[in-house]
Amino acid sequence: MTDRSPRDAAQLRLAAIVMAATGLLWLAANWAGRRFGWPSEYAFLADLAAIGGFVWSLLVTWRIWRRGASPGKEG
């Protein structure tokens, strides 16, 4: 396991929080939509917001991984 800088650790924590919150909020939005009979357009908005949160987290995680895998670092 490689040592991460405090900045990388903070960004990874933020990405993990965003992933968890995105999943929970997406589930809650789908449940509320069915429970209260919201139009399907709201479900699509919730899906797009969830995709955005997951893609952002993926990009942040990938960038940190690439920074750690750069040549010249010993692991």
CA-based gyration radius: 17 Å
Q: Structural class, please?
A: mainly alpha
What ranges have pLDDT less than 50 throughout 5 or more consecutive residues? none
* Overall form: elongated
One letter per element, helices H and strands E, the order comes to HH
Give the tally of β-strands.
Answer: 0
Count of spatially separate domains: 1
Helix coverage percent of residues? over 70%
Biggest beta-sheet profile = none
Total DSSP helices: 2
Question: Mean of the pLDDT scores?
Answer: 91
- What percentage of amino acids are in beta strands? under 5%
Distance between the termini: 7 Å
What does this structure look like?
The structure is a single chain. With 75 residues, the protein is mainly α. The chain has one domain. The chain contains 2 helices and no strands. It has helices at residues 6-36, 40-68. α1 (6-36) packs antiparallel against α2 (40-68). The protein starts with 5 loop residues before the first helix and ends in a 7-residue tail after the last helix. 3% of the residues are buried.
Salient structural properties:
75 residues, mainly alpha, 2 helices, 80% helix, 0% strand, elongated
Q: What layout of secondary structure does this protein have?
A:
Elements: H1 6-36, H2 40-68
Outline of this structure?
With 75 residues, the chain is mainly alpha-helical. 80% of the residues lie in helices and 0% in strands. It has one domain (6-68).
